[in-house]
Design brief:
- The protein is α+β, with helices and mostly antiparallel strands and 300 residues long.
- The chain is 35% helix and 14% strand.
- The chain has a four-stranded antiparallel β-sheet with strand order 2-3-8-5, with helices on both faces.
- Strand 6 and strand 7 form a beta hairpin.
- Helix 1 runs antiparallel to helix 4.
- The longest helix has 19 residues.
- The mean pLDDT is 95.
């Protein structure tokens, strides 16, 4: 049985996804080879998980036996709101509830509705939760290109998007065409805007990346990089904020991504006086719970 691509896209739109594409399962041999070179150069810092499960990253059938299609979704999270410039800064993606939970719920609804059409279909939903090369699949699904900031850029949605993936045994009547062109041109604004020089065109060195240092790093935060971070205590949007493709974006329509005024206006003093109880109250169900209050103290 072949499901209809048109029906898939209508279902996704009704659920709230901003863009969707579907492509046949294939081996990502070139992409994995590039990832291995990046890891071999030490640019993954101490993110050892990036060096594992290369065979799974290359072949999605290792996640779902008999997989035939990769369904790729984009969810806009762009907000025109801004934190006051004199308070510790949080990356925009962390302003609302944890996107892993919100996007995965939507993916599960989409999968269930597809299974109503094809009872034999099997699938699994992933939102940064497995060794899946999301950017590569999104590009293959025609949803954009990998920018010089290493993020996926969609012509209409820019780079402020969450990628969700369903690895499925379903087959579709037609598939999307890969995005073969980069529309970054000669622009290098993202590279020039990176406060720590972590970016080269199309590659990031996690060892100098503010997002890595403030979220992933379990060790010492080098003082030089902390100074260059300029008040960013959880993630960094520097490369996204200057991208021309992000200058005229539409506000997201996801209530769960709306930040509370209290969260946006926390001063450095507020943070230093915060105890675990208040942290849990303000940041429950958010991405900051992953890092924890003690790491935030280090980042201040």
């Amino acid at each position: 049985m072949h499901l209809k691509q048109r029906q898939l896209k209508e279902l996704a739109k009704n659920i709230g996804f901003n863009a969707i594409g579907v492509v046949p399962v294939a081996l990502l041999s070139d992409e994995v080879a590039a990832l291995k070179r990046w890891v071999a150069a030490g640019k993954n810092a101490d993110m050892e998980y990036m060096a594992r499960n290369m065979e799974v990253r290359e072949n999605p059938e290792r996640l779902v036996e008999g997989a035939r299609s990769m369904i790729v979704t984009l969810t806009n999270y762009y907000s025109s709101q801004r934190q006051p410039v004199d308070v510790p800064q949080l990356a925009m993606y962390a302003w609302g509830e944890d996107y892993h939970i919100i996007v995965k719920k939507r993916l599960s609804i989409l999968l269930e509705r597809l299974q109503q059409e094809d009872k034999a279909m099997r699938g699994r939903c992933f939102v940064d939760s497995a060794p899946v090369l999301e950017h590569s699949w999104a590009q293959r699904a025609g949803l954009g290109w990998q920018g010089k900031n290493t993020l996926l850029i969609h012509k209409g949605l820019g780079s402020y998007c969450f990628i969700g993936i369903i690895v499925s045994t379903a087959e579709f009547d037609c598939y999307d065409t890969p995005s073969a062109t980069s529309y970054c041109g000669n622009c290098t604004r993202c590279v020039e805007a990176c406060p720590t020089g972590a970016l080269t065109a199309g590659e990031v060195d996690a060892r100098r990346c503010i997002s890595y240092q403030t979220i992933e790093n379990k060790g010492e935060y080098p003082e030089e990089l902390k100074r260059l971070a300029g008040g960013r205590i959880f993630g960094c949007d520097a490369c996204q904020s200057v991208c021309p493709w992000n200058l005229k974006l539409t506000e997201h329509q996801v209530p769960e991504f709306q930040p509370s005024p209290e969260k946006m206006q926390l001063t450095a003093t507020d943070w230093r006086m915060m105890d675990e109880s208040r942290f849990q109250m303000i940041f429950k169900n958010t991405a900051l719970k992953r890092t924890g209050l003690s790491r935030i103290f280090t980042n201040l």
